[in-house]
Amino acid sequence: MSKSIKLAILGLGTVGTGVVNLINDNLSELKRRSGRDIIITEVGTRRQRDDIDPSIVQNDDLMAIAASDNVDIVIEVIGGTTLAKDIIMHAIKNGKHVVTANKALLAEHGNEIFALAEAHHVHVAYEAAVAGGIPIIKVMREALAANKIDWLAGIINGTGNFIMTEMRDKGRPFKDVLTEAQELGYAEADPTFDVEGIDAAHKLALLASIAFGIPLQFDKVYCEGITGITLQDVNYAEELGYRIKHLGFAVRRNSEDEQQDSAGIELRVHPTLIPQDALLANVNGVKNAVLVNSHPLGQTLYCGDGAGAGATASAVMADVMDLVRVLGNHDDSEHSHHVPHLAFMPEELSDTPVLRAEQMITGYYLRVHAYDNPGVLADITRILSDAGINIDAILQKPAHKLGQVPVIILTLPVVESQMNLAIEKIERLTAVTDKVVRIRLDELAQ
Hints:
Layout: E1 5-10, H1 14-25, H2 27-34, E2 38-44, E3 57-59, H3 62-66, E4 73-76, H4 83-93, E5 97-100, H5 103-119, E6 124-125, H6 136-143, E7 148-155, H7 158-170, H8 174-183, H9 192-195, H10 198-212, E8 222-223, H11 231-239, E9 242-253, E10 264-275, E11 287-295, E12 298-305, H12 309-327, E13 361-371, H13 376-386, E14 391-396, E15 404-415, H14 416-427, E16 437-441
Parallel strand pairs: 1-2, 1-4, 2-3, 4-5, 5-6, 8-10, 10-16
Antiparallel strand pairs: 7-9, 7-11, 9-10, 11-12, 13-15, 13-16, 14-15
Helix pairs in contact: 1-12, 4-5, 5-10, 7-8, 13-14
């Protein structure tokens, strides 16, 4: 008779409880798919829970659970980057496979964690760390294994997508929508990680490593939030045929690329204008979506719930099912059957550099406020032309308070450093009354 697989769940919050419920609801289905009984033997919780099967050991000593002889797989859903790291490292050293939803921990310490796992012949699975229930990690590591990925673009934070959708559809200001997002449980009491793009940057670091076979480099992701986006810009973008989405991009740049003088990887999270008919422009609410462009397959879109108990528990248990099959293989020590953590063999990871912010290439939406004086528009366009920046469209609105006029300009793609210099010169014009508002514009996500 096949051996039962014993799970420990560390953390009984929304996700941990969701995993318990999923196992209880789908127990027979899990056995039919894996050929094994999957049972929860221990849970890590600060307080005793009456709704947990009494046969399951409840313990607040998480380190002890991570080393328990009565556990095969440790599921970490406590979050954070300190205690969670210590627990996962301890579990690995004790020969446990690990499943985690902790994108921050992996983005910041994944290189160390994965190396330790390789040394101890165990695996760390993390499907739930990116885009909730969307199986994007499995797709990129396995289904696209024969493809060369050129770029990916994604809505990988549901809170930010909810806010941008509400602003566009209902004309509501950022602060009002953020308050509702907190009331609905989409955003934390401190929403910084969501609205400043840090959460998305953690996820992008993981996706980029899998896509390009580079070490995890969260500290090199350019990160810009949505707190500065106004209804004015949302409406102007719509008028010009675009929508503003908070996107993460990982782009392979070759030295032969136009305007690019060196090969490297762009890693960037920022508000982005994309055409209204683009696939990602029509992913709304709290949904997540990742668009991957690979050769020879082309563009493929993966979309679904990016958060919540059900979606995340589904991803956690998908990893558990993979590991159950690993544990059923008697040649586990050689990993001959298993996909590498970052899709490439550890010794084959590339040293391709991550490009600096000033090397990034995008189009731009510029909003300039200036006095309605003769020659002002000509001065602005001359500065852009002298910087080698091509204009794609101009929208000049009627003059308002104190004779000021908003001028909206869309540019073709240009190196960031060139745009920085041009904006500095525009802001020095005596007729320009305020800082230039810039939002990146990208045609990749079509």
